[in-house]
Amino acid sequence: xxxxxxxxxxxxxxxxxxxxxxxxxxxxxxxxxxxxxxxxxxxxxxxxxxxxxxxxxxxxxxxxxxxxxxxxxxxxxxxxxxxxxxxxxxxxxxxxxxxxxxxxxxxxxxxxxxxxxxxxxxxxxxxxxxxxxxxxxxxxxxxxxxxxxxxxxxxxxxxxxxxxxxxxxxxxxxxxxxxxxxxxxxxxxxxxxxxxxxxxxxxxxxxxxxxxxxxxxxxxxxxxxxxxxxxxxxxxxxxxxxxxxxxxxxxxxxxxxxxxxxxxxxxxxxxxxxxxxxxxxxxxxxxxxxxxxxx
Length: 295
Description:
The chain is α/β, with parallel strands linked by helices. The chain folds into 2 domains: 183 residues, Vaccinia Virus protein VP39 (Rossmann fold); 83 residues, Adenine-specific Methyltransferase, Domain 2 (Adenine-specific Methyltransferase, domain 2, Orthogonal Bundle). The protein is 35% helix and 16% strand. Strands 1, 2, 3, 4, 5, 6, 7 and 8 form an 8-stranded mixed beta sheet that branches. Strand 1, helix 2 and strand 2 form a beta-alpha-beta unit. Helix 5 runs antiparallel to helix 6.
């Protein structure tokens, strides 16, 4: 991270955030390990917090804002977080029931049974377990029929006792958040002057095959960010940075003068590339995220 973010002469001062390492969902592109670095780049003072591309919620939970809105266009994902806030014991029951199915039938067979149930009728309860049990958190849907197609992971999903501890901790950290199922354009239109919006959309150079990536247009997001900036809203955007261990800089159509600062955050080896290459060790596939700030 670049130290000028913490320059005391800067008009907007960043507040250092402690790391929060406990994942609720396994999710490719999950920023849990370095969410505190991203959150430390946010203004020290702002009004409401908005996260319109919720995903795993890693930055949201790390920040644990006093008041905020988080959203996603995918209903089963939003169902998980709504249940987390409103009835965490029910969420824990969702997970426990499916974990025991996998234990009874065997990891692969149990996963397939839950995957079939989900593909016949998409729902948050099945999706919760699938996110924790699928390969590397790679949530991928086939274009032909919309079915989730990710195979079971080699790891063993956490047991219900461990998940319970995670869920209750996340419940406490997300208690001040309103979760909505809506398009990011609707969510960002709600932000007012002095609010903070953090965007973590599908990445153009790496995530086209994943949930949410097929139809996403970065140029349209840039237009919405400009409208927010013009209204006095602080916007932070995570997007493609570098790949091939820094040898390749991801070219993006970033509008001139839209962002005031650019930071690169080291993300480590690419889990998506590992999935695509059959689990190979990827020393040369270290990637960095680009964090763009309008302030």
